[in-house]
Amino acid sequence: MKNFKYIILGAVLVLGSASCKKWLAVNADPDNPNNQSVQVQNRLPWIEHFYQYTAGVTNYRTSCQSGVYYTNSGNPNTFSTTWQCTNANSTTSYQTWFVEVSSNLVDMYNSAKKIGAYHYMAAADVFHALGYMEMLDLYGEMPYTQAGTGNPSPKPDDGKTIFNGCMAKLNEAISLLAKTQETGAPSLASGDLWSGGDLGKWTKMCWGLKARYMLKLSKKTDLYNADSILYCLSQGPQSNADNIVGPGFNNSTVTDYLYGDPVVTNGNFDYAAYGSSARISQYYYNLLTNMRGAGVIDPRMSKIVPAYMTGIQLDGSGKVASYTWTRSIGVDSYGPSARLVKGGATSIVTPVYAAANKNIKYTINDATDLANFIADQAAAGRPYTVNGNTVTVTYKAGSIYINSTNYVYAGDTVYVNLRSSAIATSGIPAQGQNDVNWYPSVDAFNAGAIASTGSFQVRPVSDQEILTYHEMNFIKAEVYMRKGDVANAYTAYTAAIQAHMDMMQAKLTSWAGTYGLTNPDMTPMNSGDVSAYISSTAVAPAGSLTMSDIMLQKYLAMGCSIENWNDMRRFNFSAGNVGSFGVVYPGYQRGPLFTGTAQLTGAGPTDVRYWMRRWALPPTYEINYNSVNTLALNPHATDPNIWSMPVWWDCATDDEYYGYLKK
Amino acid sequence: MRKWKLFSLIMFVMLNMITNDLKAQGVPISGTVLSEEGTPLAGVTVAIIGKNQAVVTDDNGKFTINVKAGSVLEFSYVGYSARKEKAAAGMEIHLSKEGSSQMSDVVVTAFGIKKERKALGYAVSDLNAAELMKNKNTNVINSLAGKVPGVNITQFSGSAGAGASITIRGGNSTSEGRQNQPLFVIDGIIYDNSTTVTGNTGTDGLSRSNTTFSNRVMDINPEDVETMSVLKGAAAAALYGSRAADGVVIITTKKGAEGKVSVSGTSKIASSSANKLPEVQTEFGPGTLSSNGVLNTASYNSWGPKIPADSSKYDNIGKFFQHGLVYDNNVNLSGGSKNGTFFLSGSNFKQTGIVPNTDYNKTTFRFNGEQRYNRLTVSANVAYSIADIDRTLTTAGLYGSGVGSMQALYTFPTTYNIKNYLNPDGSQYRIYSGTLPLEGDIDNPYWIINKDKLTSQTKRITGGINASYKITNWWDVNARLGYDQYATNDYTYIAPGSALAPLYQSGRLSKDLYNYSYVTTTVMTNFHKTFGDFDTHLMLGTTSENTNIVSQNHWGYNFVVPGTISFNNIATTNKFFTDGTTRKRLVGVYGEAGISYKNIAFLTVTERNDASSTLAVQNNSYYYPSVSGSFVFTELLHGNNILSFGKVRGSWARVGKDGNPYATLTYENPSISIGSFTGVGNQYYAGNPNLKPEIQDSWEVGAELRFMKNRIALDYTYYHSQTNNQIGQPRLAQSGGFIFSTLNSGSVINKGMEIALSGKPIITKDFSWDVMLNYSYNKGRLGAFIPGVAYFYPTDAQFGTIKAASIPNGGYFLGMTGTPYYRELDAKGNQIPNGRYQVDPTTGFYKVNTTGTAVVGNREPDFIGGFNNTVRYKNLSLSVLFDIRKGGDIFNGTEYALVANGLSKKTLLNDRQSVTVTGVNSQTGADFNQTYTVGQNYTIGSTTYSGAYMIQQYWQNYAANSNNFITSVNWVKVRSLSLTYDFSSILKGSKIIRAISATAVGTNLFTWTNYKGMDPEVSAAGGTGGSGSQGIDYLGVPAVRTFTFGINVSL
Fold first, then answer.
1. Quick check: A280 and A455 in contact, CB under 8 A?
2. Which domain holds residue A376?
């Protein structure tokens, strides 16, 4: 009897251990899908969105460097104004690319390969090229071959390796797009937020990107190949219909998991126009109002430069009864910078709304300033009293004004910021999806007092331009110009301007019936103004075309884009020492608020190290966490003047490049 | 479920195996029982363990009892600690009074096995109830501070309900998600001691540094504890295998005793107040200067003009904190008969915090019972507790803005009275309402504590059933089923009109549910046989553990109709819901074999094999062996009068630590919808499909010596441990594609020493003095780590300019990196230690190493110690516990914040009229000497700066240097001082009241320290795992000093 019980006990123990394995198999989270089970058609919209987000922050910050924008926000201000570049700028582009996108590319590629979804493999290749090329543009060297796969301390690669890797991926993408997918593989259309799965557009994008990237090699006599670029262009986008854009929406308040920004909006908006810090620079403003010294206002100007309401009169119910639209002027960082010199590099103040009459007393000791100030008040029609050197000004209810007792700031309302509102960011629940104006407060919204109409490329609902037909034409113009074929260059130059005008007009037309109802800057341009501009001397006449004409029109059209900074590096900014092209970006120079001597150590404009040529790697996420590998490849990665070290494609030869990486 | 079936079957088998009852054939032996002072004790119960046979000593302390050779006798007497001894003819037993600090000879070891101390090859420290009650703290962990060598306690903060963390012999895992706290085992059941953070850091403010969290051992009623055993080394804990690497604290709760029913109650009232507050300057008012010297007065910085003598200044910080009160009531009832005992207790602990509107309220119940049925003993225990915290946000933690009450309090300019926080219409009164948009403002601390509501409630039930069956007198079987379950409900309401991102300005609400449950089964069998002079034992067992956690988070924003705070009053599009399930299972098989020779030499080996669900399937089964031995050499030196006992011991063990659940896979984020598309992408945590357990190899040697008839005792240990295959989820290079990656990499090496010296300098009938002095140090180092990574930033413990960091390849485990000033260079281009500072000519200030990679400190103390004294004169006894620490760096982040915002008294230098920068030019190496004076202008580069602005910037530059806020801290604390008077003698003859005593206790009364900040003990993000946040003091609730008065009555 006793033995029998032991036998039972023993049997149970054996059974128990056999089922132990199964009992322990509980290490997969039942609430969250894992990376093995995600479908490719769900990966792709994620990748497209977060690439847009990466590109958005990159476009914004590099546009501060290239002089499109001024900002009073401390970190990007070191790009726009002081050039004392701070590596606090370095993190976001890097983090959004590597953390939010890169590992998904690997997983999408592998999942697509398993099911023969070649078009998704191609899409992974295209994003690989888009993202890593952008990282190369910014950081010069970083992990590439070992990146994005969970390797905890990936070794960095040099710029040449990254460049060639991206080109190879584009070639692979072109051949994969030509293949028929295996049966059962999801169509590209089911996951393509950008182009609806149009394989032709994707293929043209690959060729277009190849052209863009091969143009980067313009300093390299051995690698730059004009005919190859022209061939790529012949296979790339052929009209605005081939433009690749990321759409922006304003129909959700859902925010992203890492930065808390809305997930449906345009990525440029999230950085350039989410808050109140960014403004149009005087450099960009001048191109829009006085290109080639022609004194012609560009029809695109009022769509790009924001306006705000002045002279607001409220009616009995506190609503705006009358007002005047006042267009912003640009903030001068490179010229005399009179306003900034008075207050400091970041001193431009953001306006507020006066819900009730507001008196501000200013003390002005300088007699000239006092007289000018009083004259300004009189001109603006504001009530004021003067008592010795103090002036008390009344900002009437409804005013958009600067709430500071410092008279230097009082006129800062003329620097209208680029801010635009989305339902996820406005904090004004009553502000509907079709109103993307910026109102400084709920009171201002209730009254209808608009403090900014926003800017064409950076509203939540703006298209985010990834690759456009007008850029292709500008590339073509530059390449022909370099070949000395001015006639073909001229054709491409005018086609580029026309293409950009057409693209804007189409978008403005599509906005007019919704957003245009509350925002005059979201309605079409006057078509007469467009043709008048094209025939004016703001556009170079045939025969007198210069490289500067091409590049400045390109700069104007690209606007919020990293490509301007890339182009400027290729032309050594305003040094005027590239080929026989002279000064391509006249007026772009260190301003009186320049303090970046430690970052930009070159002695003069023709010294390579005089300019901003790359970003330092993120101080924490790469340098601190991967310092040994980072410094092994580039011992200067943590030097203060890393900001002026050219990246590989910005060097004429490999010897020059590897010379920088030496100890 | 399968385990449960197995368990029932074994119970069934046991119940049916009633075999022949071996009769004990006894021989009579006699002995004497004496007090420590040597006076005979009459009426002591002498019982044979495991039999229902007992006698009582006579007036001369003599007894005679029939026993079989090898039996163990238990001696028990009211007011004295019970003792067990092997029966021997002519034995002389000395009983010590309860509460005296002499170490008992029997200690509780792994799986509750009681062993003779002399048989142990490793160090075990234990504390009894009386010692715990001397400075009772509602968190039993805190009562260990200063009393046990090798144990380091860190209190999270001074707020009501704040927990504490405990580490033994240093930490073994660096990563923040990895706990280095020991396993807690209560009456044989593993008891969860996590500090769980529910909810969302960004949107609820619920992160470790932003509000108050308890550690779950606080759910235990300290009055229920009979003994606590601290198993420090791996050898001691080896039987727990993959749960043993951080040591084990074994708690045994009280049981009833045979005899009449007794009732006892205690009632305490305590008052606590802030120990020390940050000091702020009151001479200069609010403002921030721009570079040209123009002042912006709408500022929370205090760089403004001198405050006129006739204008009001407010002691906002001093008036903010209140006296906290504690009401602590306990009652217990116990008793028993020949075959059964019971213990029943209830308690309530009600505390109001020093921050208004915060409190902690804990109610507990416990039942322990035991019943014997011949050879079968069945015991059961169950404890229930409810713990509520009303808490506040302390520092920034809300997306968009939100600074928390402490941060706001330490920031507000002293020219504003923060008590004025409401407008007549009930909205928040904001001092800069016209200037700062709400999202750019900071909330008034009174708004935060009065309008926001943050609560946490935990209900917990823990229980177990234990059956043991004695098959023969040398073989028994034990089975146990344990259950631990709690539910935490967290509620966070942020009032409309708070300074948050615009989206949340109409109020937000979140509710988090966290349900933890744990079931464990253990079956164990013991054999014990004596062969001549050799005594042997063998134990075999198996255990299973099943942990299941279900969590839910609900949150939303924008209440549609003001005043109704409910999800029902939030639009569907603005409310969100997430679910979590965590499962973890483990099966272990273990055994122990021991042999001893004549009480002289002891040898024990253990082995355990674990399989854990958290590891990669191919790597999930592991062996953990240990061997330990001791040699009592005094057994060979008969009749030594000075050295009464001497033993040397040594052990080697391998233990481990399994992973966290789900770390073998990479998971996805919640999907996003854009247009008609749905996107899914990876989370920023990378899984590891090859995860292995951490393996710790350790050895220790030690000695135990007692002199002069045990009047003086010395215990010495030296240990060394190395933990390899460290499991971590460190922040690593993001180019890997993730922020955190789960890895097995690197090793942690700990070595240290522990010394405990105890003595009884004076023992007389009326007067006695007991002393215990302990000393320990640990040196924790990070060994090799992932190649190419120079710093391991384990935690979110990054405050001000410093980061907690472990430094690979032999660097500090508890290091800190920061941003010091550069010093002048020698000819080789290296910085000269203590050389002059470099001055950056482009800024005019000292040049800061902003890479953040400079190692600026080691947070581990050189040594810690305790000095515990009990002096008794007749019925009055006085205990005083000193807590000593030497060295260990602390970052004073609060002072950092005050310097940066212009409230620090330091910034009053030269009445803010001038500052001088001296050093060497960082570009040319030339001497640099420049004074910046108010009223002057300075041109640097092409910009002209006003002198006043340069003085403000001087202090920003000062704040940027981490080293300005790091101190190597020493302290001596009077951790507790307690005075007890025993009125029992007055009651002689009372039939009702058996004992009555009164106690007055002061806790944290005095601290002598070189630390200039608040309290050096507070850590900024309490409960952070890995190398944690100890040594970082940042805008916390000040530590408290407490006075308690209590009465204890026994019926």
1. yes
2. 307-421+438-447
Q: Which residues of B touch A425 (CB under 8 A)?
A: 502-503
Percent of chain B with pLDDT over 90: 58
| pTM as predicted | 0.84
Provide the pLDDT for residue B730.
82
Q: What is the mean pLDDT of chain B?
A: 88
Chain B segment 417-436 residues within 8 A of A by beta carbon are 434-435
Highest mean pLDDT among A646-650, B40-44, B244-248, B474-478: A646-650
Chain B residues close to A256, C-beta within 8 Å: 672
Taking the C-alpha atoms of residue B868 and residue B703, their distance in angstroms, rounded to an integer, is 21
CATH of the domain at B377: 2.40.170.20
Domain count within chain B: 2
Are A342 and A195 in the same domain?
no
B1, pLDDT greater than 60: no
What is the reported pLDDT for B21?
A: 34
Considering the domain boundaries, does residue A555 fall inside one? no
pLDDT confidence of residue B19: 32
Q: Tell me, yes or no, whether A609 lies in a domain.
A: yes
Give the CATH number of the domain where residue B89 resides. Answer: 2.60.40.1120
- Is B719 in the A-facing interface, judged by CB distances under 8 Å? no
Task: Please name which of A584, A659, A578, A467 lies closest in space to residue A218, comparing C-alpha atoms.
Answer: A578
A598: which chain B residues are within 8 Å (Cβ-Cβ)?
840, 842
Range with the lowest mean pLDDT among A644-653, B287-296, B974-983? B287-296
d(CA A460, CA A480): 36
Interface residue A408 vs chain B (CB under 8 A):
yes
The contacts of residue A366 (CB under 8 Å, 6+ apart) are none
CATH number for A124: 1.25.40.390
| Predicted pLDDT at B28 | 80
DSSP A259: T
Q: By C-alpha distance, which of A512, A652, A653 is closest to A219?
A: A652
Closest-CA residue of B relative to A142 is B735
B224 and B78, same structural domain? Answer: no
Pairing mode, strands B534-557 and B508-531: antiparallel
Residues B78 and B172 in one domain: no
- Crossing angle between the packed helical segments A40-66 and A118-139, to the nearest 10 degrees: 20
A4, A6, A27, A269: best to mutate for the B interface, most B CBs within 10 A: A27
- Taking 90 as the threshold, does the pLDDT of residue B36 lie above it? no
A641 at B interface, C-beta within 8 A: no
CB within 8 Å: A427 and B503: yes
Q: Which residues of chain A have pLDDT under 70?
A: 1-19
B616 is written with which tokens? 């990669």
Among A255-259, B279-283, B439-443, the range with the most confident prediction by mean pLDDT is: B279-283
**Class of residue A297 by CB neighbours under 10 A (exposed 0-12, middle 13-18, buried 19+):** middle
Final residue belonging to a domain, choices A430, A447, A464? A447
Is B490 within a domain? yes
Interface confidence (ipTM) of the complex: 0.91
CA distance A329 to chain B (A): 24
Residue B777's pLDDT is 96
In which domain, by residue range, is B769 found? Answer: 133-277+321-331+345-404+443-624+632-814+859-888+970-1050
Instruction: Please answer yes or no on whether B674 and A193 come within 8 Å at the CB atom.
Output: yes
